[in-house]
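Reopening this ticket.

The earlier resolution said the output was attached, but the attachment link was broken on my side. Pasting everything inline this time so it's all in one place.
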Amino acid sequence: MTALTLSTAAAPGLRADAIVIGVAKGAGGPSVAPGAEAVDKAYDGRLAGVLETLGASGAEGEVTKLPAPAGFKAPVVVAVGLGAEPEKDAGFDPEALRRAAGAAARALAGAKKAAFALPLAEAADAGFVAEGVLLGAYSFDAYKESAKDAKDARAKGNGKAPLAEAALLGGKPRDKAYKAAVERATAVAEELNRARDLVNTPPNDLNPEAFAAVAQAAAKEHGIKVQVLDEKALVKGGYGGILGVGAGSASGPRLVKLSYTSPKAKKSLAFVGKGITYDSGGISLKPAGHNETMKCDMAGAAAVFAAVVAAARLGLEANVTGWLALAENMPSGSATRPGDVLRMYSGKTVEVLNTDAEGRLVLADALWAASQEKPDAIIDVATLTGAMMLALGSRTYGIMANDDAFRSAVHEAAEESGEPAWPMPLPEHLRKGMDSPTADIANMGERMGGGLVAGLFLREFVGEGITWAHLDIAGPAFNEGGPFGYTPKGGTGTAVRTLVRVAELAAAGELG
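Inline output:
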């Protein structure tokens, strides 16, 4: 993980591999953003013109490298686009700062130290830049070479390590607000990156038992209470949904409960995550071309796990419980078949019409288990439906809820955190499509509006009177395209920051 420091040093005299500055897109061309005054002065106030000559416009994510001016100890200046220039007296958007810092951090892979002279108008800005740096510098190369071989390869120029250290210029090391902003960014980013690691880990190494072991180790490290229900305990408890999904795999399912408690807590939250460590579709096998990235089907559980640990590290004054519903969905002679009926933990029966609609089955058991503790609110997170990707694309997740005000609060938390999301309805007329002649409900309904149908199914397993929201992160959880901003290729850690923000609001008594 990249080391972060706040620095009051002047850019010219700082020993670093590069100085990072911000460039905004103005009406008359690029303009140098606040924080880079000393760098601009060294170019005789002509830096904007030099950058324009080099083709820079200040567009978001644009990175331009140029030789540092005479007298600088750093050899390179890296100008990164912040997007549109803000209106007079307005600061830069937090997400613009995050993305610019992330793009620069990625561009500086292989560097030992970089100084970030981006706009820091207030303490919160230091947190946004720090978050962008830590998320943008992320790299997952655990399976490429051994540590020694990787080091040798990098020495020969065959690979680049993530940026090792970042100094935030204009920061105030002795200011409590600045320190707190960077400490929060560090805790959240480190846990989000841990979620990314889990999503990126191959399914032959991350089965339900292995995931549970990771959760147990983290819980021990951070003083979180943990309980793991294995196959025997699940059978004894009657968790028919989790058992039914995991029935076809040689790797048994697990239900993991992580409990962070604060002696000052006035609110309690339950986060529930879908943790399908590999999804073949089961007997309803996925077609060729749709299996290759299905290690990411546990991204919801990874996000819940990371959020609970982050809440513990931040010492939030709220009780936060995470439920990880872990199973591997495989076809075999013991697998659940289309037409089978499962008796869920709640006692309801479900006719399984499609074994590839398995996420809602494991979530149903975990939602009911979470409901028994009567938290103030439940949020479940899942890579649940392809329909949500068709509706919202690959960078935005959908939010459904049984309470409009709570849905709005979660949406606002997502937007504040830099995670694009959109509120979605739960149309009552779609519920009838899940009526079953055999069981209480079927796991499939109308094809059109499939993401909403899934939300309606989950609502059936939320305890009466409990406020609940469902986040369908199928689109943004795994980036199959190229990296952008602070988002890498592969696992993204989507929803971690939203959950942490919701927990912070609950702790502050501002969740509603």
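Reporter confirms the inline version is readable. The chain is about 35% helix and 20% strand. The longest strand covers residues 268-279.
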